[in-house]
Amino acid sequence: MPVLTIASSKGGPGKTTVAMLLSGRLAADGIKVTAIDADPTMAFHRWATNAYEGPAFTSRTQTDETHLAHLIDAESRVADLVLVDTAGFGNRAAAVAMTSADAVLIPTLSGEADITEAEKTVRLAEGLARAARRDIPARVLLNRVKRTQLARHAAREIERATLPLLAATLGDLVAYGEMTFSGRVPDQGVAGDELARLVAELRTIGWIPTRHNGLT
Amino acid sequence: MKTPLKSRIRLSPDDAIRIAAETAPGLPPARMASSDKAQSFNMRLRTSTIAAIEARAKADGATLKQVICRALADAGIAVAPADLEDGTPRRRAA
């Protein structure tokens, strides 16, 4: 089943937040999700095991690239979707997770350094796909967007760099920060709407399943 | 004409590791190996203190080092997890 790796060679663009949002929302949709935390900080796994309140999904941790490759392979045989949250710097585990993936989601903020690192991550994903002789599509997700000139400029810069950009964006909302403490994935309000749009777009491009495939 | 690439052909784990290493050879591991190496730390203690530590170690089935390090950890000292383990050859062999 699909493997979606969330990656960025820069820390802080919201990879773990996106992993939380997708895991919780898709589990609520009845999708059998396995989330693998490949970041040594273990922020996602801590949240999943200590704070998360919602329909269950499986949370695993693995930062060693060799074990990670085998874990992704094993989980992809039993889960509807495997989500891999990677560390915020270029590292072997992230490269293996991207190589093993069916798609790579690259959150970024609107700053110049953020977009530069997003581009590096896209190019790395492209290089890995060529080497693997597989199509591993990558898309950039603008995160913590404020409705400002900066955000519009960032979107234009991403287009100029010919980076594939998702139409969906995530705003700079308190609800996402609250989720990290409350364990509740937003399902209503502005945050719930944004998440619904992101999930709908990912389904439209075939990155995530629409329903449980019946595997146990 | 190029052969179309197919996304659903999954790589073997070994191929994924090899391709990632060949494509991005300079990347570091996600978790760096610890540089927190062990070194010696000697203390001169009164015989009675040593006897008390030995008695507790015997009662707990622990080593002297474990008794001391556990007490330090309980007092809020940041004792490395490895120093709370019994690493003596005798116990490793058991």
Produce the secondary structure layout.
The complex is a heterodimer of chains A (216) and B (94).
Chain A: E1 3-6, H1 15-28, E2 33-38, H2 43-51, E3 58-61, H3 65-76, E4 81-86, H4 92-99, E5 103-108, H5 112-132, E6 138-142, H6 149-160, H7 174-182, H8 189-204
Parallel strand pairs in A: 1-4, 1-5, 2-3, 2-4, 5-6
Helix pairs in contact in A: 1-2, 3-4
Chain B: H1 13-23, H2 47-60, H3 64-74, H4 89-93
Helix pairs in contact in B: 2-3
Would you kindly provide a written description of the structure presented here, covering whatever features stand out?
Chain A has 216 residues and is an alpha/beta fold. Chain A has a single domain (3-204), classed as P-loop containing nucleotide triphosphate hydrolases (Rossmann fold, 3-Layer(aba) Sandwich), CATH 3.40.50. Chain A is built from eight helices and six strands; from the N terminus they run βαβαβαβαβαβααα. Chain A has helices spanning 15-28, 43-51, 65-76, 92-99, 112-132, 149-160, 174-182, 189-204; strands at 3-6, 33-38, 58-61, 81-86, 103-108, 138-142. In chain A, strands 3-2-4-1-5-6 form a six-stranded parallel sheet, with helices on both faces. The mean pLDDT of chain A is 91. Chain B has 94 residues and is an all-alpha fold. Chain B has a domain at 62-94. Chain B is elongated and about 70 Å long. The interface between A and B is medium-sized, with 38 and 24 residues.
